[in-house]
Structures are given as structure tokens and as C-alpha cells.
User: Fold these one by one.
Assistant:
Number 1:
Amino acid sequence: MEHAVETENLTKRYNDLLAVDRVSLQIKEGEIFGLLGPNGAGKTTTLSMLATLLSPTSGTARVNGYDIKTQAGAVRKSIGIVFQDPSSDDILTGRENLYLHALMYGVPKEDRKKRIDYVLELVDLEDRANDIVKKYSGGMRRRLELARGLLHNPRILFLDEPTLGLDPQTREHIWQYIDDLVKTEKVTIIITTHYMEEADRLCNRVAIIDNGRVIALDSPYALKSQMGGELIKLQTPSPKLDQIEKLSYVVSVKKGDSTVTLTVKNASTHLQEILSMVGQVESVEIRSPTLNDVFLHYTGHEIRQESGEGGVMERIVKLRRGK
Amino acid sequence: MGELEGFYALWYREIKVFAREKSRIVSSLVNPLLWIVVFGGGLGSAVSVSGMNYQVFIFPGILTMTILFSSVFFGLYIVWDKKIDFFKEVLVAPLSRTTIFAGKMMGGSIDSLLQGSAMLLFGVMLGVNYSLLNVIYSFVFMLILAAALVSLGLIIGSNMESVEGFQLVVSFLVFPMFFFSGALFPIGNLPKYLLVFTIIDPVTYAVDGLRGLLLGTSQLPILLDLAVLAAYAIVFIAAGTWSFKRLK
């Protein structure tokens, strides 16, 4: 089976910082693939290289079968991108924005109107198409850009942090649109995100990226299953852990300040036993692992929930300051 | 074919924006009118140059100034565009950078030309009378001037990271280009230290050429003015295209 994207040791170096470090990925046609990681992990840099906006320091990639180094034009024609920051022209109407895009991507004259109407309908913007974009809400703007990304029938759609800065309701809305797109448009969707729940909700497969390297890659379900059980979080001042660590169904034990987090197979059936051993407990919480736990497991730190600013450049500054 | 449509798209965008931002057109014409009416009228009540009313004498200079400011600023605005806006979408499109530059440059030049036309109309009210043929020649001058200066703005804009640099460019480039050009005085017998700057200033040749066409008095042959201006335009366009190729 042909791969939509295939990267081979893709690397981007900014002086002393490895923004993307030997990333080798194979993204299948028709899947929603997520690049999950904190800001500055190298997600957007990876995406920029795949979109031929940045040239890699070493390594290469094929997008829709075209080489990103030697066939940039063909790559660009075959992909659509929705940027992290709004990139529609807010002095123009929604329809005018789409018209310009159709011109720039060489959509044949006879198809233009049909395609524009079609994508507008896809994102439910037909009735606002002739308003200038300045009057749109953040969610509408994002939808317009989704429509624009699809206008020229790309085979891959890149979405860079598609719901950054949107309120929870709008976000749920956008997710629904993205979900539907894969079904109706038969495109491969590659999203970058630092929202765990977004990757979990949308993606068929997720590559977890930290410091420019892919540290885990699988379906969200499989990634979470790798944790080997559910999590029991105990609020306890002086836990007795010696016995617990020896139990066969306890996968891991992590001690915090006044909390202990255990990963336990079939946690609910073993809870009683654990509680009897651990000593005095103030509160108990059992939950299924999330991608955040997976991330924590592999990296030892959590995905920081920061704003979208900074990214790789922020990491460079930190590096220069000696962390 | 694809490149041509892309060029048209960029150009179409600029025209749309121009037509929609009416306040921009109005504000860009207020300044030149103040120069002509207040400065020209005021000084003109005491001075006459080359046997003509001072107000009329500076009219071609102020016309050139209108184009100078609107053109350079058009180019500088891509600093904004680079940060947000439409420009990222343009840069990632399957278009060559030459096409993108050409579209931007032509869009800006047409903007400036439209503002120049408004000034030409004002000249009629001022009592300057010119033949249709001279108006057409003037358009050629204005277009070449605009193309050169929009390119210059785009060169600076594409190499500039922050909007804060705007004021610097205005103080150290745009105003000197205006003052040295002879827009406000005849350049016939300038002291040497002024003359040097006047000679290297591309705007000088536009002012002189337009003064020749519209008022019938110029220091240099009009064709020479045109040739020098065109040479500047070619250099700036080439340098601008190169700057765009380096844009990330």
C-alpha cells in the first residue's frame, strides 16, 4: 500500500538546536495522523518541512510520492494546509478568499464556482460567504480555512493546531467537521496538537514527539493499553510501599509529594487489597490512563499546557540561556 | 497558465483591498493637498520660481511625493503580512517567488497610480493645463516610479522583522528622498553637497520628468529622466525578486 507520507531520518537543525531529530514516519492513506507533543517539540517544524516551507538539514521525505526536496511544486499542489494562526484575508469576504485560493492553486475555471460552493457547504458557511472575514468568529474563521485547505482537492490536509485558542464548544464542533471530512473527502489528515484529548478524540494513530524525536507511535488505544492497567492515585502522607511494589499486578509506582500513583492491572478488583497495605489514605481516585500519562511515562514530564506562541524558537532561547 | 492566474490573484487582492479601505485613500491624499494648498499657497504668495507660481511649480513634486509615500509604504506593509494575514497562504501556494513578487509589485503600483490620478485631477483645479498626450506620458512615468519604489519597499519589508522599523525607514529614507528630489526647489544651481544626493536620488528624475511633461520646464532631457528612472526600477525589481526568493 502506498503511503501518503514517508519520512526518512528527517532532521532540522538550527545552529546548536536539533528541532527535529531523525524522524522516520510512515503515514497511511486515509488516516488521521496526529503529531502530539508540547510546544517546541518540533511538530510545526516537521510539518513545515513536509509542506516544503522549510528545507531539511538532512534526511528526506516523500509526500504523495513526491520528493520534498526536488519536487516542491508537485508536493504543494497535492496538499492543503490550515495554519496555526489565521491566514485568511480579513478585508475580503469568505468567498473572495476562496476564489483567490482557487486561482493560486490552479483550480480549472469551469470548476471554481462549483468547488467553492461545495466546500462552503461542507463547513456550513454558505449564508456567511459574502461577509468580510473580519466579521467572522474565531470558529467560523477556522472553518473557512478548513474549506480553503480542501478547495483544490488535496490528497493530504495538514492541520497545525486546528483548535488552538477556541472555546470548548467550538472545538467540539471543529472536531466533528474534521471527522466528517475523512469520510466524505477521502483525504489523509495530519494534525499537530498539544491537546491530548484532541489527539485521543480524532486520530487513528499518534506519534508522540518530544525534543524533536518520535518517542512512541501507535493508536491512542494501543498507547494507553501499553500502560498496562488503570491508574490509582492515592492522597497519603506516609505510604507504605515495600509490599505493594512486589505485587504482581502492580505495574509501576510513582511517588509524589503527598501522593502516590500506581499503575495497576484490573485496578478496581485489587483496590481493597492495596488500600489495606498502604496505610492511612485521605482520598482515592481510579481512572483509565490518558495520553498524558503515556507522555509522562515516556518522557518523565507532562505536556505543558501553554499558549501557542514560542515553539522551537523558544527552545533555542532557552538553550542559549543554558536552560 | 498557473503562474499567470496566481499573478492575477495577487493583483486582484490588492485592488479589492484598495477599493475597500477608503480611509486609506483619503488619508493618503490629505498630506499632499496640505503641501500644495498651505505650503505652496503660503510660500507662493511671496515667491515665484522659473517665472511661474510656486504652487504650480511644486505640483509635479507633490504628485511624485504622493506616489513615493504610498509606494514605499505598500512594500513595508508586508512586515505585517508576514506576521499574520494572507501572506503565509501565498508563500505556501504552488507559485514561483517571481510570480508572487510580480503580483505584489503590480498590485501596489496600481494603488499608487490611482492615487496619482486623483492628484492629477486636483492639478486641473489648480489651473495647470496639460494635454491628454502628456497625461498619458505622465502615467508611464508614474508607473515606472511606482514599480521602482514599491519594489524598494518590498525589499526593505521582506528583510525587516518588526513594525517598529517603519519610522526609521521614513526618517532616513523616504523623507530624504522627497527633500533631495527637487520637489520643492529647482535643482539648477544647488550647492555641491546637495547636488550629490540629488543625483543619486531616483525620485529626482521622476520630479524632473513630470515637471517637464506637465509644466513644460525641466533641467534634464525627459528621455534621460525616463531612462535613469527605468534603470533604477530594473535594479530594484531584480533585488526585490531576489529578496522574495530568500523569504521563509
Number 2:
Amino acid sequence: MYGVMAEFATPERLLEAARRANAEGYRRMDAYTPMPVDGLTEAIGLGHSRVPLIVLLGGLTGCFGGFFLQWWIAVLDYPINVGGRPLNSWPSFIPVTFELTILLSAFAAILGLFALCRLPWPHHPVFNVPGFERASQDRFFLCIEAQDPRFDPQATRRFLEGLGPQGVMDVAE
Amino acid sequence: MTPERSNVQVAPPDEFPVIGAEYDYGAVTETFSSIVLTRPTPREWYLGFGVGFVLVTVLLVAATILFTVGVGIWGINIPVAWGFAIVNFVWWIGIGHAGTLISAFLLLMRQKWRQSINRFAEAMTLFAVMCAGMFPLMHLGRPWFFYWLFPYPSTMWVQPQFRSPLVWDVFAVSTYFTVSLLFWYLGLIPDLATMRDRAQNRWVRRAYALLAMGWRGSADHWRHYEMAYLLLAGIATPLVVSVHTVVSFDFAIGLVPGWHSTIFPPYFVAGAIYSGFAMVLVLTIPIRKIYHLEGFITLRHLKHMGEIMLATGLIVAYGYLMEAFIAWYSGNIFERFMMWNRMFGPYGGYFGALMLFNVLVPQALWYKRVRTSVPALFLISLSILVGMWLERYVIIVVSLSRDFVPSAWGQYAGTIWDYLTLAGTIGFFLLGMVVFIRLLPMSSMFELRAIAPRGAGADASAR
């Protein structure tokens, strides 16, 4: 068994349920919503995203790597003397440095997102729940996972039923 | 994180709401997914597809003859070596800029009205940049060697010249296309999951499932997603500005009178936004009519786009004025001649038409009656698209045809192949847009759910 899942009609009820579950001491849980819900990250008990750090590292790589590429080509690999001007004519290298900073930041953002979300992940237990297709449309789900130390199939189910859901379902592994 | 995503917000009472009052989460999902999945394809779609298909065929014929015979079939010559190809390149890439601006800049500015139009404006960017990219490639003469533009360990032991704005352009445009594609795909992922969950046909469902990569809308995913989306918007905004700045460097760094001007970067960027919003309006107005999306793309959207066109149009007009003023004030005989020749020389008619289409006609947007009139906005947008094309024609052709030494002067006119290639790329753009509308949700459903008015109202009654 993967966990027990409750379905809610509105984001407000889901938020309330997530806060109550957190107060009850449940830690291993996740919510499934058709759009981002303000305050849900905190209600579930998740911290800040680490995407910004990954983007920063990607951007710095693009910036220094891009400049180094041009410097290496213009000074060492293929030097061209243009009227005796310095080979390391760095102001001319700024536009490409900028573009490569943007390019590598963007790739870092997307690949970092996929890595942190562990996507692609086509077969997840929550997809087995009947009616879960509405999680991408108009319903809001809260799943308390079996790995939680306080998880008990009967007690957790009763707890979720007390939160005013549309229904409570077991999630098979 | 961003307030416009908050789903407890009700749109303030307004003369022109951002989104019709009768739409809740379900209605948003139903409206945009059914266009792709269940509703019959409207007749106008087939018309658009047919016209696009015919013009793409024209493009293929024109390109085949070009590659067989060479660039001599075009009107280009010495001194006017750039001609239509570069005019069209700058025109198309400028059009693309509105899409990124709507999706990235308006997100940072927390403008809720972007939600209904950002997806197809971004698709417009992608197809416009593809059209733009074709022209320098065809103009290369030997397009099969395009990869010589990139630094790679070649057996000829040569490398690109990084002091050249043309090399900057390669990096700017290819980065722009890549980042636009990534941004567009990122925005699509949650909606692809919706399409996966709503598709009835097994193979259609699998195709969407593959593209959605198993997105399940988990709170853990959304926190990373929102951050990644915001950061991409943050880096895409300076990118747009940099791309058209670099495009303007192609001219401003040259010494040709009429090109060598420090006002080029800001006035090119403003012109790009100007023509881009005109293209968004030209696409939006028929789409909202054909698919009955007046509740999602309201007069509010059209009015705001009209206001942006008015503002950027004034910046462009200021650019023209400053070019003329500096030409006179500099006292430089070549600059003064350039300006005189531009206005009264052999291409004076183009300049007159440019002033009419790009400066005079858009002044009608000062009137609110005009900004809220759909046919007027459509016609003004067409006028701006023509005007912006003429602007690039005037800058490129007129300046090149009369540079410093009269013995080096020449005359230029596009040939039939120039016009057919331009028409062909318009067809490619049209075909891309109609296929996109048929296969993918054209508006961002997950972002619209967050501002759907009845989402909050329904909740109040449920309590």
C-alpha cells in the first residue's frame, strides 16, 4: 500500500486539511492540485526549492565558459591581428558571453526542475486511484503516505474522513 | 508566490474584465481542451491550413530554385547585398519578440491579462523565429555550410571572428529560439497532463502522456515548477532586449550612413515590440471569433495591446525624429545627404508610406473608442505590420544603395522570387499556428484556473 488519499472540492479545504494533517504529526504526505495553490508548500511542510541555486550555477558556467571560449579562440587558437589592436578585445566578447549565460541558465532551470521532480516518471502509484485524472482539472487531493511513521491504515483513513473530503481512497502500491 | 496565481482572488469589478464571470476551473479546462479533443474543427481552420499549405509549397519551390541556381535569382547586387533577406529576417524576429514579452515580462509585472494569450503568443514567437532564421541561412549562398558559423574544432583550423556582430547574431538568435522553446514547453507540461487525463483515444492519450512526462501536479513539484518558471521569465526578459539589440548592432557597428547610429538598439527593440503586438492582435482577433473565446480574450486584452502599441509606436516615431535631427545637427554631409535621399530620393515613396503606416495611422489609438473597436484594432495592426516591414526596407536598401562615393551607388528592387519567398514564410507561419491550435491547448489552462472568477465564488457557497 502506498497511502491513503482524500479528495477535496476546493483549494481552501485542501489547505485546511494539509495544515490539520501537519498539526496531527504527519510528515510524509503530498498534495495534488490542478494549479499552484498559495501556501500549500508551507502547509505540507516542504522547504524552499533549490532550483535557484542550480540556475545560478548554470548561469555562472555559461558566463565564464562563454568568455573563456572567445578568449581562447581570439588569443590562443586563432589570433588575428586587426590593425594592431589587442587580441583580448574583451568588450566585443560581452554579447556572446551574455547569450551563453542565458542559454545555460535556461537549460539548468529545466533540467534542474526535472531532476528535483524526478521526471519523467510515467508510472506513479497515485495514478491508480480512480478519479485521480481530475487532479489535473478541477479537484484537489491530499495523500498521506504509508511510509509515515504515524501512518495506520484505519486511523489515517478516519482522520482524513473527518476533514470534509468528497471521498477517501486507498492508494495501491 | 505570485499574486496572480492565487486562487482566492476575485477579479475586481471592471468595465472590461480579464475573464468572463461565468467560468470556473471546469469551464476553463473544458473550453480549451475540447477545442483540441472533442469539438469539430471549424471550417475557417481548414481555410487557414489550406492557405498555409499552398504558401509553404511556394516557399519550397522558391528555396529549391534558390539552392540550385544561387542567390542571383534575388534582386540583391553590389552595393545592396542585403535586400529582402535581411529585411524579412529583422521583420520576423521583431514579430517574435511580443510573445516572449507577453509571457515573461508581463509575468514579472504581475499582469493577469497575459494568462489568456501567453501560450499562443509564445507559439507565435517560435514560428516567427523559425521564419526569421530561414533568411540568413538562404542568404548564405551555401546554406549547407551554416555550421561554419559556430566554433567547433574544424579540420580547416579556422574559428569564427567574435569581434563581428554577425557572429553575435548567430548566438543571440539561436539562444533566443532555444530559450523560447524551453519556456514554452515548461508552460505546457501541466496542460499536457490535463490533455492526457481527458483524451479518450488511447494513442492520443499516450502521445500527451509521453510529452507530459508523468506530471501529477504534486505540491512538491509545483514549488520547483513555480520557481523555475519565474526564473526563466526573469532571464527571458533581458534576453529579448539583448536579441534585438544585437540585431541592431548588425547595422549600427557598420559605417554606412543611415546605419551608424547609437539610437539603433532602443529604437529597434521598441519597433520589435510594436510589430509583435500588432501580429498578436492580427492572430487573436480571428481566433477569439472563430473559437468563441470572447469570454477569455476580452476587450480588456485587446485594449491593453493597443495601449502597448501606442507607447512603443511613439518610441519608434521618436527614433525617426532623432535620426533626422542628428543627421542635420551633425553637420556631416554624408548623414545630411542620407536623410535627404531617404525622404526625397528614388525610394522616397517607401519613406512616405512608412510615415503613413507606422506613425500617422497608429495615432488613432489615442482614442478609447478605437482601442475598444475590434475591426479598427485589426486594421491598425495590419498597417503597423506593413509599416515595420517598410522601416527595415528603408534602413537597409536606401542606406546601402547610396553610400559615400557616387561611383559605387546602385539601385535595388526585389524580384518575384523575393516576394514569393516572403509570402512562403508567411504561409509557414500560418501553417505552424493552425497546426499548433489543432494539437495543443492554445491558452494556459493551469494559469487561467488560478484567476477563474467562479473558483472563489463556488468555494464560498461550499462552506
